[in-house]
Design brief:
It is built from 17 helices and 14 strands. By secondary structure, it is α/β, with parallel strands linked by helices. Helix 6 links the parallel strand 5 and strand 6. The chain starts with 7 loop residues before the first strand and ends with a strand. It binds nicotinamide-adenine-dinucleotide (NAD).
Length: 428
Amino acid sequence: MASERHPIAVIGTGYVGLVTGAGFAELGSEVWCVDVDADKIARLERGEIPIYEPGLAESVARNRDRLHFSTQLGPALEHARLLFVAVGTPPTYSGDADLSAVHAVVASMPESDRHALVMKSTVPVGTGSSIKRIFAEHGKGGFAYVSCPEFLKEGSALQDFLEPDRVVVGDDGNWAGDAVVELYQPLNTPVVRTDIASAEMVKLAANAFLATKISFINEIANVCEETGADVLEVARGMGLDQRIGQHFLKPGIGFGGSCFPKDVSALKQLAGNSGYHFQLLTAVIEVNELQKRRVVGKLQKHLGSLVGRRVALLGLAFKANTDDMREASSLVLSARLQGDGATVRAYDPVAEAEARKLMTGIEFADSALDAVEGADACILVTEWPEFRELDWNEVRARMAGNLLIDGRNFADRDEVTAAGFIYEGIGR
Ligand SMILES: NC(=O)c1ccc[n+]([C@@H]2O[C@H](COP(=O)([O-])OP(=O)(O)OC[C@H]3O[C@@H](n4cnc5c(N)ncnc54)[C@H](O)[C@@H]3O)[C@@H](O)[C@H]2O)c1
């Protein structure tokens, strides 16, 4: 099978790039992975996986012979015609996407009529057309371009790559679009073949819609708190309607991560830059920001002033099964708590190293029980499975106080209250 598959290159070996490389290697392709981060490449060559993602280390090890890691583009260009781009597109201060890494990749491409850039990075609508213009202006008009946005979720990224709901391929009808469709053919998934701008918009619109669903259910949760309804019952009753669906109706302390906040903001700015005020997304963003801070109000309701209070955070990653701390709600929460004079002690099973790069002034604990020692209140921030196993009687015994804020409606409320806690969930 391997010899029949197109060899490919992946430029940028972060969450998306490494998973894409491993995924295509699983399907039998030789993959040349390129990154400007020499340390990351050296680790990958030694067989170390720089990120935490279930199943990824095993997949890379299993396909080690097909995966080639380098800081140099030369071997990738020599062996592969399709060059998947998976470099970061972080937000700028203006809320637009920062395309400098994408443009660095574009500038490093040689003149060629046998290669194509296949854009996996999430980019504003119009980026493909602008890159094609840049190629043409620099005598590289033979370089083909395909938009192939990625929809994987951190925490189940490799599985999502191998079992996608759909693959979106935007191109202008040349060999490269066909080649990308052929690469995905073994996955037996619906392919949405469209123009480049529409493919770019599918990605932004999909993320914006999911974020809207989260902010919507968070607002319903807030109204439930005022009116005595239980948002979990409400979400169940709503979600069984097939027009609505059950996914992303989980209230909590706001969405974070490297995608939703930046992609929602990028779509809002993109609309604004083209003269359209996207009012709905403005509200989605604002609701999310307020949601991260509502926890502080819940603490104050029971504790009064937070000055000198000890607060334990269980979980820091933006969601379970990842060490990604980008835009995690815990960042805003811990800063707010410290701003109000509280001492914060936190535990995360895998994200501590990443958290240490972004968080100041907090103490890091070695376990959940260590984190809650002497705490006046405990906040469940990330729904790590190991927190399900906690013995709440022991947690209560270690704490000075008895307040549990369940930021993910994750703990068993009856069990927790039986252990002597005051339980505060979200929307119930
Ligand atoms: N993380 C996700 O869950 C996810 C899901 C779907 C789409 N995306 C999108 O995919 C893109 C990548 O996201 P990520 O989370 O993998 O980012 P990341 O920061 O984890 O990885 C980006 C990698 O690109 C490398 N890089 C930067 N400039 C480079 C260059 N000129 N040449 C080669 N390598 C370079 C960096 O060193 C880094 O290793 C973003 O546009 C993101 O929005 C991310």
